[in-house]
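Task: encode each sequence below as structure tokens.

Item 1
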Amino acid sequence: MGSSKPPNDLKLLQDASIDEGIMASLPVHSHIVETASQNYSEWSSTLRLDVKLEDNSQTQFFLKVTSGELGRSMAIEEFESMMMLNTISPEFVVEPVAWGVCSSAADTYFFISEFHDIDDKSAPNLHIFCKDVSQMHTTSANMYQEKSCRPLPEGKFGFHVTTYLGMFPKDNHRRQIRPTLVHGDLQIRNARTDLKTNRPVLFDGGAFWGHNEYDIAKWVPVRYNMGASYLEEYHKHIPRSEPVEDYEDRMRLYTIHYNLVASAHYPVDDSLRQLSLADMRILTEKYRAGNDQGPGGM
């Protein structure tokens, strides 16, 4: 798999105003005062754009720049994911602005969203964060029921474009079940506290319609510094799915996926593969006799 990150000497990374595609996505008659590197992503180049508007007021935007076919697909999926998530939880999820093709560099693409000045040193308030996540899941399930979301998920898991976990595409083939819109990479790195509002904000979505417990299974691995306290707080708002007795096995199943994707990004370290194999052995030993459906009948 090729890289989606553009070369460091790309001119627009020093001055995004040279790119007509990016400028056309900003407010009319605005101009970029400063282009500042954010050093946020391993898969893209990230920048803060300080922009002066037509009325001489100033605002800021967040810019991601990617390259290649993988980068194009990732720009599309982030825009579509964040549009859907923001529609459902506008006060919680960062609002996307545009995605497009860069005019100043070949085979190069961009994603723009509103900019939030965040606390990147510590986790957001546990109680508020878990409440916001649960409300996002509940609202999306209700919108599905009312057929008020666009595009409609057609009563299935999946998403209308390919979405990613890191650089790896998710299996978004539709499955028959009542779905919830999930963020897809719900870790502390992608949820921080807005220093202006002192509330959590959520970004870097790779959304799809799926099981809400898939989203919170990301909190299980120790490396994400979340764990039981987050899970218990979340379940104060949304109970464990039935059958409750299979809950731990569902968490184990979903965690296998997260661990394998993380391992694929860092193939030199085989510890996550070994952990996944151990979890697979536990599940196959438990469910191979007399239960072909697996945990929770999934």
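Item 2
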Amino acid sequence: MGVYTQLSETEIKDYLTHFDLGELLHFEPITTGIENSNYRVTTQRFDHEFYSILTLVEGENTSRVPWVIEVMKHLSHYGLPIPKPRVRSKDGVNPELAGRPTLFMECLPGQHLETVQPSHCHQIGAQMGRLHSVATAISNTQPILFDSHWMTESFQMTQSHLSKSEAQILSHAIEHYESLSISGLPRGLIHGDLFKDNVLFQDDSLVGMLDFFHLSEDLWLMDLAIALNDWCFDAQHRMLTEHSAAMIQGYETFRPLEPEERSQLPALRMIASARFALTRLETFDGNRFRKDPFDQITRLRQLDALSPN
């Protein structure tokens, strides 16, 4: 994610004294994304090198840290490819750094995919289905993120950046989400951000799911819609039907979709695009957006054109 808190070598070395991971060899900021501050950190203890990700949790995410850690531990325990936390040698509680809560995790192997095949999408769907099934045992103590109330407030706050037609299509998606939220569709904890830059593959096998700070209760279908929108379109915003079918098939190996979910999936895909358009509209700093919201609006228009309703 984007780096908002700059750290010095001395600060990182001081932080590492709380862990039995040896001496600092190298660190570098991770400059992509729009939330939190992340660094790659390499240390050496005797002849072994350790590769880690240090996250300084920013803004509203700070209060969610203990719960997010517990959920990640639970999912990892049941075999999902989740990075394991580095344990503080003294008491297991990570210290703050620069006045911010921290996560210090192992750096998983693998890379983000540049070319996506249907087989990759099948694996994404399968791991998502596993996550939804396993997460039913977790007690959710956190407020719901990005619900229709949040979308309405965000839309009102950012509407000045939109044309009339852009505002209309976003408003329509929000209204539809309001009705679906009380429709009785299955719901539970979702990852909420399974974009390509939050998944690692090695030798065509999924080896890592990252960034759980969008974790929240929602319609399970929302998670699938978010992933379909990112993994199953090409650069020209053309829907890749074989990729979409593979992801849904993978998901259903763990949780078959209900008939009503199938019929509402096109609408949820539009709502998912509207959600991420709004999160990115909120990143305007007076000069530019930290991440382009209009790419999501283009996708929303494409999905609207393809919608059967």
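Check on item 2: The first strand starts at residue 23 and ends at 30. The chain has a mean pLDDT of 92.
End of task.
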